[in-house]
Design brief:
Length: 292
């Protein structure tokens, strides 16, 4: 089996972005500026946002983090979003999910100016994605598409089984892989918690995209010989042998499927770094759109 090295690939793409930012700087152009809003103290969210800022720094972007207490009201958060919408220094921004229960994530997403929605979550951008019109693609699906593309893994005519139907991964990646295009033209099955006989679906898959949030759920016995397995899961499991008391594992039992798969993504070091890189690509695009 070949391991898909998301870290190496993301480094390669970040070098390309850095070169472009250097060119822009040399031309006295607009340096891309990404802002992230984080609410509360969710450790996973804090770690993701930290990674986004670190990667922004690496490619020469400006970045701003706005951190708010978890008691912030929905109205106050929307005020912050309006401020970012109107701040011409900021090219793109994200509101890290999940949000506290008293805040409706749909209202928050709707408040974001679609031109600055570098997560690609706004219905306007989601709609454009579904119609195949140029837009910001949601970061995780975009990262997966870049991975398949750069590893020359063909999706044309393949049976793709997506496990999970979330708005940020399962649903958009299903649409993107079914559409016409170089990474596309696949026959896609979306599976979820109400799917009957998931095992039979998985067994027929040439490509599996696992995005369910269950540690080590997919095993060798579930997959076809030679399948490509893309693992979107990032699950914390207790591990007292680690200093921080946990380790990260995917939705796929990587060691178990290794002898049977043709390609697979490890966790960590697979899809995760590509998600961040896709966000950078969208921010670069936002910045270029602005200076047009
Ligand atoms: N939470 C988990 N994934 C994401 C993401 O891609 N963007 C945002 N904003 N929040 C997330």
């Amino acid at each position: 089996m070949l391991s898909i090295d998301g870290r190496a690939l993301s480094k390669e793409i970040k070098t390309e972005i850095r070169e472009e930012v250097d060119r822009i700087r040399a031309n006295n152009g607009n340096i891309p500026h990404l802002a992230a809003v984080i609410v509360g103290d969710n450790p996973a969210s804090e770690s993701y946002v930290k990674n986004k800022v670190k990667s922004s720094d690496e490619v020469g972007f400006e970045s701003t983090v706005i951190k708010k207490d978890e008691n912030i009201s929905e109205e106050e958060l929307i005020e912050i979003i309006h401020g970012l919408n109107n701040n011409s220094d900021v090219d793109g921004f994200i509101v890290q999910l999940p949000l506290p229960r008293h805040i409706d994530p749909d209202k928050i997403t709707l408040a974001i100016d679609p031109a600055k929605d570098v997560d690609g979550f706004h219905p306007y951008n989601f709609g454009r994605m579904a119609l195949g019109i140029d837009t910001y693609l949601p970061a995780t699906p975009y990262g997966i598409v870049m991975m398949l593309d750069r590893y020359n893994i063909s999706t044309e005519g393949k049976q793709v089984v997506v496990v999970g139907r979330s708005n940020i991964v399962g649903m958009p990646i299903s649409i993107m892989l079914a559409k016409k295009g170089k990474v596309g033209n696949a026959t896609v099955t979306i599976t979820h918690s109400r799917t009957k006989n998931l095992e039979a679906q998985l067994k027929k898959a040439d490509i599996i995209i696992a995005a369910i949030g269950r540690a080590n759920y997919i095993k060798a016995e579930h997959i076809k010989e030679g399948a490509v397995v893309i693992d979107v899961g990032i699950n914390r499991v207790q591990d007292e042998s680690r200093k921080r008391g946990y380790r990260l594992v995917g939705d796929v039992d990587y060691e178990d499927i290794k002898p049977k798969a043709s390609y697979a993504t490890p966790v960590p070091g697979g899809v995760g770094p590509m998600t961040v890189t896709a966000l950078l690509m969208n921010t670069l695009k936002a910045s270029k759109n602005k200076s047009k």
